TrEMBL record:
GO terms for cellular component: cytosol. This is YecA family protein. Belongs to the UPF0149 family. InterPro entries: YgfB-like (IPR011978), YgfB-like_sf (IPR036255). It holds the Pfam family UPF0149.
Amino acid sequence: MSEIGSSQANPLSYDRLTEFFEQNGILSNAAEVHGILTGMIAGGASVEGDDWLLLLSDLIHEGQSFKPAVRERVIEMAADICASMRDPDLGFNLLLPSDHESLFERLSSMISCVQSFLVGFGVNQTNLSGLSEDVREVIDDMVEIAKLDFAVDEDEEAERAYFEVVEYLRISAMLCFNELGQKAGAGCATNKILH
């Protein structure tokens, strides 16, 4: 698994992005910010105009305005998520610590990412009954994964299980986007709002 949010575009690693958010007073780490943004976009939220930035600020910055550098970075992240979700080669990836980090740290970040995805997704999708059975099933699975309390054996089997769950979450996020985010149409054309 790559440590970057998508196969290209975003040059920042999980660690550097987490450090960037810390330095700018954002309480969430890179996995959480990326997870919330991914959930919002996959759930059909529009990332045009400023409404989504205000909502994101409520979720990760206690409603305070973002500094210009943070605003620019989250706009870039949203554009990157949109582009990778639309990538015909399935280029979307979760933003998680690199494989060099301990399995415990990677699992912790994965669970934070899933919890954040569900928060972002829930912004637009409060009633799951109108969604396809596939999407309802992956959201149910994510809810279960988000509740995981784990003891980690740093062995090959645990590593394999981790990668399988990450891959499942990656595909699940794209499934949600294909059903709901695509319907938002131009709402995911974030490059139009870069000034």
